[in-house]
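User: Can you fold this complex?
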Amino acid sequence: MNVSILAVGTELLLGQIIDSNSAWMGEELATHGIDSLVQVKVGDNVGRIEAQLRRLLDDADAVIICGGLGPTHDDLTREAIAAVMDAPLVLDEDIAQVIRDMFESRGRRMPENNLRQAMVPTGASVIPQTRGTAPGLICPIDGIDGKVVYAVPGVPHEMRDMMQRAIVPDLVRRSGSTDTIVSRVLRTWGESESGLNERLDHVIAELESAGTPTLAFLASGWEGLKVRLTAKASTTEECAVQLDAWEARLRHELGDLVFGVGDDTMESVVLELCRRRGLSLGLAESVTGGLVGARLTGVPGASDVFRGSVVSYATDLKQTLLGVSPGPVVSGSAARQMAVGARERLGSDIGLSLTGVAGPAEQDGQPVGTLFVGLVGPGFDDVREVRLPGQREQMRQFAVITALGMLRQLLAAA
Amino acid sequence: MNVSILAVGTELLLGQIIDSNSAWMGEELATHGIDSLVQVKVGDNVGRIEAQLRRLLDDADAVIICGGLGPTHDDLTREAIAAVMDAPLVLDEDIAQVIRDMFESRGRRMPENNLRQAMVPTGASVIPQTRGTAPGLICPIDGIDGKVVYAVPGVPHEMRDMMQRAIVPDLVRRSGSTDTIVSRVLRTWGESESGLNERLDHVIAELESAGTPTLAFLASGWEGLKVRLTAKASTTEECAVQLDAWEARLRHELGDLVFGVGDDTMESVVLELCRRRGLSLGLAESVTGGLVGARLTGVPGASDVFRGSVVSYATDLKQTLLGVSPGPVVSGSAARQMAVGARERLGSDIGLSLTGVAGPAEQDGQPVGTLFVGLVGPGFDDVREVRLPGQREQMRQFAVITALGMLRQLLAAA
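Assistant: Here's the predicted assembly.
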């Protein structure tokens, strides 16, 4: 089963919006064992949309068109599909009523052009809208046996909903597969792709001879590497049995490198480890300027654990606010005193501190990339030094995840 | 002049990397008056790359291929171009020597496959590499009069360098245009696109009848709207004269909404305004958890101005660390006391504070989206209340730019 994607919108070609929808769809399709042939972006021009659609259908079993389903005169996807199907566009009274009702419930007058969204090519079936006003479409192409065009809105959450609810199941059914495919992602941090590959060498060989689940590494920049297991079986339960067994195997091989699963983030895991042990957390940030606190407080419910942070960017504040002794502030001794000071001033069980050099210039005789992390809490009192890659922003982002990763290891080991 | 872009890489189709290169190229081309026809992503398969290239050349005057120029067996762009040109690949001894020298200068052994990057189709000319190891290529297509294929590496900074240094100038020359095109971007904040449009109604009409420069609005989410002027004239100097005149006109119409130009950011502008007046800045952050300090310290040289931040996430810390009186902490009174406390505790000339509700639940009887900003400094002592859109992350990001925008207005007016 080969699928191509056509993203519609002049703003995509002009770079005003980056097309992340196609990437998401490609990943979703791959997870379900469906191959992607090409992904094309085209502007809001009905002739060009139609021509691209015809070309893509030459090679692909199915084409998903994303965007161009809205109410304005620039929304031309319906017309292009109708031309390829050689079918008239007809008003679907049910869709029209949903759109009218939506405006009425909000007490707003409905501009007449909204009913463009209720036009459906004869022979197409509708993917009902659940959030926005434009429905999706499933359009069998006459004369091309078994080929099909799907249309979804360009609004990401509407597109994702229709993909998962209607399009992927329809594609799987058309592919004749009776298999269920389920993925599970392990989040790792602290090892390179080639390093993980080496550690898992024999596991990968075993997986390859078993056939399912398959294993893939997905890079996520400074957030580490994801290890994705994708199981194929006749039921969800059988997939879960496979995934449980191989997840346990991977965790055994990778040990502490695995910090979470699925949607876990380093900060959500740290907060959860603190919460379970009833520990509160305070920070002293210098080089990161507030980034660590910003990430922790991005997690709903962080206030259970996170008390606050002293961002002592100016050197004298490290002394006056945190009680650091005079001397170089990019040092292990300063890092430890900052962590102790944070714990005291913020009244937290744990003090975590970061001091380092983000550049452009070196500081205290330490080169760009130097990071000292202080970790003080019940059962630990530790200072670590690391050398991080990158200039300024990259170094700072690595500093955040590095410090949180160190705290996670201490908490998980305790 | 119609250009299409072909991005090469299986990881792009699988969604492991989002193709932001094509968007950047599309914007760069548009700025120079060159139309984008389609943008296609294809996997690392030499047959598919070749087939897509041929199809794109049917309609476009030029095709830019991005990616697939590296040293491994997966890098197949050179082979696909050679097939389309019907020309053999020949080792370019000059390129080979640059690659050998680079490895030698780093004291590393050169794996032999690196010389794949020195293979050039006969008839192509080379865009010398300045940073990475793979050069770019300019490949006239025999038998198709005047059509051309460009190849650039997928590494963003290498691609951008070659686009600006070689490809855009070559395209402009081929288009027969003797015009110079120069753009200038004004950064605005605090008004919607339709609002800006209304304010600039008559200016836009004048620009349209003048023909040059042209004006475009570019949305940048919570960072505001960019207004881009693009001038066309026979010299750079004439373009600058046009842009200066119309920039002045726009600034007159938009007043305080314009916060910067080009690469200015809200935080770089705030730091510069403080620096010019010799003022230091301290923060008290609650709802943003450190985001404001993180953004300010992302700017090199921030330490001239930025002293630090007290992130008082827990309610009691607002009292103990900042001297806020007991009572609701999401309030104008708390915001003002936080700003005063930050100024005192951090020894700064200016105190800026943020307290609000990011959700998921309301707090102190205030709904999600509520933000109070305290601004205390020489000549001002102010509290503002706003209601921001979005849930948690969006609300917090809006809070950062809103508070910095308020401080900018106060400093610019003084």
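Chain B touches chain A through 68 residues (CB under 8 Å). Residues 2-174 of chain B form a domain with the Molybdenum Cofactor Biosythetic Enzyme; Chain A fold (CATH 3.40.980.10).
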